Amino acid sequence: MAFLELHSLTKRFGAITAVEDLTFSVERGSFVSLLGPSGCGKTTTLQMVAGFETPTDGRIVLDGRDLSGVPARERGLGIVFQTYALFAHMTVAENVAFGLEMRKVAKAERTRRIADALDLVHLSHLEDRYPRSMSGGQRQRVALARALVIEPQLLLLDEPLSNLDAKLREEMQLELRRIQREAGVTTLMVTHDQSEALAMSDSIVVMDRGRLRQDATPFDVYEMPQSSFVSRFLGKSNNLAARLGESGPDGAALHCGNVVLHGPKADLPPGPVEIALRPERIALTGPDGGKLRGTVAERVFMGNQWLLRVETEIGDMLVMRYNTGRREADIGETVGLDWNPADIRILPAETNPA
Fold first, then answer.
1. If pLDDT is split at 50, 70 and 90, which confidence band does 350 have?
2. In this structure, is residue 161 part of a structural domain?
3. What is the DSSP letter of 249?
4. Total structural domains in the chain?
5. Alpha-carbon dihedral angle through residues 72, 78, 81, 83, given to the nearest 10 degrees
6. Which residue spans within 194-250 are E strands per DSSP?
7. What is the CATH number of the domain that holds 323?
8. d(Cα 215, Cα 203) in Å, to the nearest integer?
9. Beta strands across the sheet bearing 283-285
10. Rounded Cα distance, 279 and 188, in Å
11. Residue 86 — φ and ψ, nearest 5°?
12. What are phi and psi for residue 272, nearest 5 degrees?
């Protein structure tokens, strides 16, 4: 039995269905991200787990305990909000102590646990400082310490890094993961940031329009998307309409307009499909090489890599090449595009995804 289980969870607000028939599980000690665009239902899901919203239907089970009817204050969960919600008039130590005081923990035990929590987040030297005189990353770690000091069964994180600048955000991804591993606490995080979810999670639950689209490891969600939505939402992807022919011993024939491409064998019937190919899997060749010929229409230098948009007869293709210290093809240059057929993902056609 998994540590946290959501069974057919549904939440309606009048005529609006925010979450529909959502089922997934979280293993003890793991870090799971709810990932999806704004309005997909991920925050509503977190609020139902926390007890701030009541499900319209379905169940939430934590360590074998059905949380139906259990008030938020009795669920024993640690929560870090997007704004951190620190008390400005309290020092770091006083902020961390708040949850323990509410639970009437004895002073000696309180002192020990506060010291342990601040040591875990590397803020012992700032226990007497006030939040207003701290950086965003430090305030975020105070909020984490406050959530962890009560020794929660489950830690809930609601966009915890969204208020940080890009560089600090990357640093705090590593720091937050270290803290979670050292604390050993099962964690459920809401984020709309794909790179954040990929970097931090043991498992990613991808949501769209209130529904589960895929639940898998970061590697599998990225490399083996099960739908057009997942392939497009996680990272950059070239997605093209195609018609799947019969699969032979060498794989599948994919008809894109007047061009026939080849991909791996597909567990789909012949007919309309969508193919997805990651830009970093495409190599540039001379004009007469590769599987497609095209013209470079745009070229963007991104420091560690180049991003090219190449116009071809089957549509625009994005190509991502690592920076090797030399310039890539110029705008207007004719190039060939090549890739391993096994890198093509053949997906069900989605004319009106729900």
1. confident
2. yes
3. T
4. 2
5. 120
6. 203-208, 211-216, 238-248
7. 2.40.50.140
8. 7
9. 283-285, 334-338, 292-301, 305-312, 315-322
10. 30
11. -80, 155
12. -65, 135
Separation of alpha carbons 81 and 193, rounded Å: 16
Range of the domain at 312: 240-348
Say whether both 116 and 216 belong to one domain.
Answer: yes
Residue 29 lies in a domain: yes
CA dist., res. 304 & res. 302, Å (int): 6
Asked if the model's pLDDT at residue 354 lies above 50, the reply is: no
Q: 12 and 80: one domain?
A: yes
**pTM (two decimals):** 0.90
Paired tokens of 232: 């497009």
Q: Specify whether the CB–CB gap between 129 and 86 falls below 8 A.
A: no
Average pLDDT over residues 237-246: 93
Q: 247: which residues sit within 8 A by CB, 6+ positions away? A: 253, 265, 266
Residue 223 and residue 281 share a domain: no
pLDDT digit string (tens) for 1-15?
799 999 999 999 999
What is the C-alpha separation between 339 and 282, in angstroms, rounded? Answer: 5
Task: Quick: pLDDT tens for 186-220.
Answer: 999 999 999 999 999 999 999 999 999 999 999 99
In the block, tokens 């939430």 appear at 60
H/E stretch holding 334: strand 334-338
Give the DSSP H/E element, type plus range, for residue 272: strand 271-277
Residue 191 in contact with residue 197, Cβ under 8 Å?
yes
Closest CA relative to residue 49, chosen from 17, 82, 26 = 26
| Contact by Cβ (8 Å): 150, 96 | no
